[in-house]
Design a protein that fits this description.
- The chain is an alpha/beta fold.
- It has a single domain, classed as Rossmann fold (3-Layer(aba) Sandwich), CATH 3.40.50.720.
- About 35% of the residues lie in helices and about 15% in strands.
- The protein has eight helices and seven strands.
- Strands 3-2-1-4-5-6-7 form a seven-stranded parallel β-sheet, sandwiched between helices.
- Helix 5 links the parallel strand 5 and strand 6.
- The two termini are about 30 Å apart.
Amino acid sequence: MNQPKQQQEPPGVEGALNPPADHGESSYRGSGRLRDKATVITGGDSGIGRAVALAYAREGADVLIAYLNEHEDAQETARLVGEAGRKAVLMAGDLADPAHCRAIVDKAVAEFGRIDVLVNNAAFQMSHDSLEEIPDEEWDYTFKVNITAMFHLCKAAVKHMAPGSSIINTSSVNSDNPKPTLLAYATTKGAIANFTAGLAQLLAEKGIRANSVAPGPIWTPLIPSTMPPDQVESFGQQVPMKRPGQPKEVAPVYVMLASDEASYISGARIAVTGGTPIL
C-alpha cells in the first residue's frame, strides 16, 4: 500500500509522518544484551536513530542522543530511553562543525566515563534531477555531515574505547546501487562503506570493531522532507517486498553489532533492504 503524498521541510519531524513510523515502542523486548554499555547515537532523535536508541536502552545501555535541532523529537526519544530505566543525554548541534563532533565525544565521556558503542547514523540528503541543479555548497555540506563528521567522531572517540567496543556506521543500499537523483548522498554512502571497511582493519589491533549497516527504503522523516511527493507516495515499492521498512526492522542489527555476541564480526556491511541484494 502506498503512503499518502506529503511534504515536510528538512530535516523533517516524526509528528508529521503519515502513517506514523514504528520504532518498536510497543514491540521491542530487551534481554540485557547491552547491559551498562555507554553508547552514542548521532541522528538519534528520529527514524532509525530513535529505534536504535530505544532498543539499546531496553537492552540495558545508556544513550547520548546527538541531533541537529529537532528538539521535540529528541525529547520523545529521551523519554523512551528514560522509560526503559536508562540515562538519556541530549546534545543538539550541526555535525558539519568538527568542533561539535569532538564536543559530542567529550560530553559522552563526561556523562558516562567512556564510550562502548558509537553509532554514526545522522545523514543529510536532497533530491535533484540533474547535476547542474546541485548547489556547490549543498554538495560540500552533504559530505561534511555524512562522512567527514564520521571521521572526526571516530577519531575523537577511539581514545575512550576499550577492547570489545564497537563502531557502527549507517551506510545505505545506495552504496551499492546509487540512485542518480540522490547523487551527493549516494556518493557519501559509498564512502562510508569503504571508510568502515578500512577502519575495521585499522582498529583491529586495538580490539575495536567497526561495521556498517546498509538500509534500503526505511520510513523516516528524512523521506517526505527530501523527496518529491510522488516519490514519497511510491516509496519502497521498488524492492522485492514491495513496501518500505520500519525503523524497528533495522534496529536489531545495530543491537547485534553492538553486543559482545558479535565479537568476531568486523568490517562487515549488513543489508536491511527488503530483499534487494548488496554485492
